[in-house]
Amino acid sequence: MSRDNPNLLTAIDVGSAKTCVLVAEMTHEGLRYRGHGIADSRGMRKGVIADLEKAVGGVQKAVEEAEKLTQEPVERAVAGIAGPHVRGVNSQGGISLGSRTREIGREDVRQAVEKARSIALPADRQALHLLPQEYIVDEQSGIQDPLGMTGKTLEVRLHITTTSASATQNVISVLNKAGIQVEDTVFEPLAAADAVLRADERELGVCLADIGAGSTDLIVFHEGAVQHTGVIPVGGDHFTNDAAVGLLTPLAAAERIKRQFGCGVVTQIPEANEIEVPSVGDKPSRLLPQRQLGEILEPRARELFELMRDHLRQAGVLELCGTGVVLTGGGARLSGLPDLVDQVLHKHARVGGPAALAKLPVDLAIPESAVALGLLLYSYRSRMGRVSPEQGLTAKLKALFAWKE
């Protein structure tokens, strides 16, 4: 293989079920797909590392597959962070610019953000993202970019995404042991938002729900800024476990049946439909009504969206979701979920597939790939913010603080 190619970007999504390594190349036209590798995740439980060595093996297998396709070594990557340990908090802080009105500069913005982030965090927690919601100059709010404006005071409302320091470090350690240098860590729904959300959704208000195997990660945008991040401890594995118990079938069979025949709304399943269900042990397979599977999955789906509704309501952001809910991640492919969101949250919902990437294989243009593709877009913008002085200070600050346009 050749030496490390500086134009290559790599994203690694270490999920509870699958590990995805996606490689793209920076060109004059933008990003172009180069290769990928997918392997079963090992040593993961509910979005966190439970067995370090097993997790390393899963990452190494996915990396090797990606290297075969790209014919390039994978040595550096941006990694996704998710799971129940992620929490968000809003803060506000600011600085005085002096007794006389003057122009606001780069260092003033930095100092205001530092003031806003200066909140007490437990010893085991660390800030993952600093996401400005709005700036306030001399009590004038709603400012997105204060650079060059004049005033006596500068304040910022800030959303801080925090994680368990140990859980984040464990992900980094797994990748390091697999021979990967971690360039950045990103909250996965923040990355997925880049791949699936539309500009008008961010502006008018939307909740992105990334339904993974172990949990459902949430991020709420309004007026173009992140207003809330959170996690619901229910994911696709819970649906699979319910199906395995309810149908008395092995977990692998339950996962396959869920994907092929599952539906979150029983009444959408024709009464006459039957499915073949393998039995546990050496007993023969059985033919069961497909509605029996729906009767198992619908209560779990309703529970997920009821928890989501209560979570968003308690955070005071449910009514900010003017355009509704966008579902992504592997769990979003279960038929009928948008209708359940409408019933439970009284919000419009759609399933969000990732934006197209040049040369991307059709089988990767699915909700499961939203995080990996979003990580690439995030990494690309950050790289451009660092290496392109002509983009100006505002672009660099946005890259620095993970500020989304």
Task: Tell me what the structure shows.
This protein is α+β, with helices and mostly antiparallel strands and 405 residues long. It has a domain at 87-163: Dna Ligase, domain 1 (2-Layer Sandwich). The protein is built from 11 helices and 20 strands. The strands form 6 sheets. It has a 5-stranded mixed beta sheet, sandwiched between helices. It has a 5-stranded mixed beta sheet with strand order 16-15-14-19-20, with helices on both faces. Helix 4 (188-196) packs across helix 10. The longest helix has 25 residues, at 290-314. The radius of gyration is 22 Å and the shape is globular. Residues 387-405 have low confidence and may be disordered.
What value does the average pLDDT take? Answer: 91
Helix content: 25-40%
Walk across the major sheet and give the strand order. Answer: 3-2-1-6-13
Number of alpha- plus pi-helical segments? 11
CATH architecture of one domain: 2-Layer Sandwich
Largest sheet: 5 strands, mixed
- CA radius of gyration is 22 Å
What percent strand?
Answer: 25-35%
CATH class of one domain, named: Alpha Beta
Structural class: alpha+beta
Poorly predicted ranges (pLDDT <50, ≥5 residues)? 387-405
Question: Which outline best applies?
Answer: globular
Q: Alpha-carbon distance between the termini?
A: 37 Å
Number of strands: 20
CATH topology name of one domain: Dna Ligase, domain 1
